[in-house]
User: Fold these one by one.
Assistant:
Number 1:
Amino acid sequence: MAQPKASQVGTENAWRLIAAAVGWVVLAFTCGGAVTLLVLQLEGFSPSLPPLYVYIIARYAGVFVTDGVLFAAAVFHGRIVGSGNINAGLGNKPVSRLPLVVGLAAVIVAYVVIRHFLPSSSLLYGASPPLPTNIFLAGLLIFSNCVIEPAAEESLFRGWLWTGLQRCWGPLPTALLTSTLFLAIHLRPRLIVTLVPVAIILALARHFGQSVRASLALHMIYNLAFKGLFLLP
């Protein structure tokens, strides 16, 4: 009986990884959406709670559940890809070519600033949402957007999935596929357009930095810069 070629085995393994990633993403957003809807019901039971606070709590409860599932999936598959070594499976190691990664960080911040002050910015994002006066909720919003979300997304897409695909494919198809999935989870079509340069920069950081730490750091910097400018009065 003829044995499959190594390239065929690699392709099959790659598509299994992709199918697993898509499945986990669907599960994560399903669970997160269900939790959001459940928490929104609190408004009827707590009429004294401001609607804005109920919305924020519901939204970020869903975000924490969604990101928790994504991170758990990354850890689970990272252990498999790394043959028991989670750090190896996630590509979690010291960053290479640090000056280049720092330069990419400067580029991503410049992109945020330039994009924010373009006339089209308000069309893409609408009016700036009010920052909650409650310190806990404001801190929850910032922590979720600037730490939790980047950690979950990078661990999944440019962590274990990138590491696994790189064993089957070259760097370009690996970057294209992981970036496409990253863009796909940001469901607003106009927002996806503005995130294309971000996905490219994060992929470059992951490739040249040879570590998920590089893309994670830039993702956090991007979200922090974006939220900081977006919440300005």
Number 2:
Amino acid sequence: MTPRFEKAYNALVKAFFEGTLAKGTCVACAVGNIVADAQGGVVDFSDRSALPHCSSDNGFWQPLFSTDGGHQERRTNIIITENTYSKLSRNLEALTNYSEDEMAQIEYAFETNTSIYFLNYGAISEHVILEDQYRGLCAVVDVMLKLDGIEPDPKYAAKFREHKSLQHA
């Protein structure tokens, strides 16, 4: 296990178990939780009727890329200077040890392997949401393992299955 994999993986496990993971919001998606953890920030999504928020600016990377409707979009069409774009990209890599391209792959894996947007969480059971997030996290872990040349190991996905709401289904 590489240090960057371990750090990102632990941030995702924490997010999953603490209920701060959410599809469709830069603050609480997989990348948002990895960045928040790297900053020492805390994502709060305890009020499912409100938008998630973070104690740090963990959504600063949003101008770089997004995944919406299964399509990855590089944010080159946003009007920011090349200098600002480069600074955001360097900051993302300095915090996470993942390049912008690698983080875009992580986001894409989560967003395209989950189907329930955070705005709908209030109308759906916790178990169904967790199953959806589990699929997304398994895809993210697969990407992170591949990026670091680590052999696939089911123990990483099994950790998410330890969640109390997934054990009794």
